[in-house]
Amino acid sequence: MENIGLYIHIPFCKRKCFYCHFVKQNYDSDIVEKYIKALSKELQLHANRDYIIDSNYMGGGSPSLLNEKQISHIFETVHSFFKVNDSIECTFEMNPEDITASKLHFLKEAGTNRLSIGTQSFIPQDLEYLKRTHSVHQSLNAIELALNIGFNNINIDFIISLPTQTTSTLSENFSILKQFNISHVSAYILEEVEDGESKDIRDNQLYYYTHNALEEMGYH
Q1: Mean pLDDT throughout 117-131?
Q2: CA 42, CA 146: separation in Å to the nearest integer?
Q3: Which residues pair with 89 in a beta bridge?
Q4: Looking at the DSSP assignment, which residues form a beta bridge with residue 83?
Q5: String of DSSP letters for the chain
Q6: Are strands 51-60 and 83-94 parallel, antiparallel or unpaired?
Q7: Which of 5-14, 48-57, 64-73, 194-203 has the lowest mean pLDDT?
Q8: CA 154 distance to own-chain centroid
Q9: pLDDT of residue 192
Q10: pTM attached to this predicted model
Q11: How many Å apart are CA 45 and CA 82, to the nearest integer?
């Protein structure tokens, strides 16, 4: 028996972020239903009893746009056609604005034990530049809610090297991050802006600042 990880892509978004190069399209309830059915068929086609799923990551897009029935159907299909490790790490990507107590309780009950929350930044002007549809307040509430409900394995996404960013605003981001017991942080350099020497300098400066700041906070 071979342990494998399973990635399930949910390509639907409320709006398309300019910096995201994953396969995606605007949310349409009819197309979502067709996609879920096609996904179930594909999982059946790839079913292999010689594999044990030890990690399951549902990303996107915005998986948190799916309703409970749709999410349950995907999880049930995985368990029907694959052997699943009892200690599986099951990750679900969520946008802060989609996080509610009822959805978190449902995900926990369904077997999700890790969340990846797309905060991107705790600075309002950064979120405005990225054209995100959530606020800083929604991000903070979402993280607190997830921790209170019992999710102790959480990833937070950050985007660095925005034209609006400085080491000062990054420092503010990490000061806020310190308030929470977050197990994993993903930091991505924004590439979809101007090229040139000034961009390279900013990339280097903010990357190494981020690296050192996270290391000082105990991240490896």
Answers
A1: 95
A2: 31
A3: 55
A4: 52
A5: -EEEEEEEEE-EESS--TT--SS-EE--HHHHHHHHHHHHHHHHHT--TTEEEEEEEEEES-GGGS-HHHHHHHHHHHHHHSEEEEEEEEEEEE-GGG--HHHHHHHHHHT--EEEEEEE-S-HHHHHHHT-SS-HHHHHHHHHHHHHHT---EEEEEEE--TT--HHHHHHHHHHHTTS--SEEEEEE--SS--SHHHHHHHHHHHHHHHHHHHHTT--
A6: parallel
A7: 194-203
A8: 9
A9: 67
A10: 0.92
A11: 11
Which tokens belong to 31? 């197309």
Distance CA 78, CA 164 (A): 42
Phi and psi of 94, rounded to 5°?
Answer: -140, 145
Rounded distance between C-alpha atoms, residue 140 and residue 59, angstroms = 21
Q: What is the mean pLDDT of the chain?
A: 93
Calculate mean pLDDT across residues 96-107: 97
- How far apart are the C-alpha atoms of 199 and 32, rounded to whole Å? 39
Residue count of the chain, please give it.
Answer: 220
Burial label, 158 (beta-carbon count in 10 A; 0-12, 13-18, 19+):
buried
Are the C-beta atoms of residues 60 and 24 closer than 8 Å to each other?
Answer: yes
Read off the tokens for 172.
């503010």
Closest CA to 166 of 212, 120, 209, 217: 209
Q: Does residue 177 register a pLDDT over 70?
A: yes
Task: State which amino acid sits at residue 151.
Answer: F
Distance, in Å, from the CA atom of 30 to the CA atom of 65, rounded to the nearest integer, reads: 13
Q: Quick one: average pLDDT of 109-131?
A: 96
* CA torsion through residues 40, 35, 6, 86, sign: negative
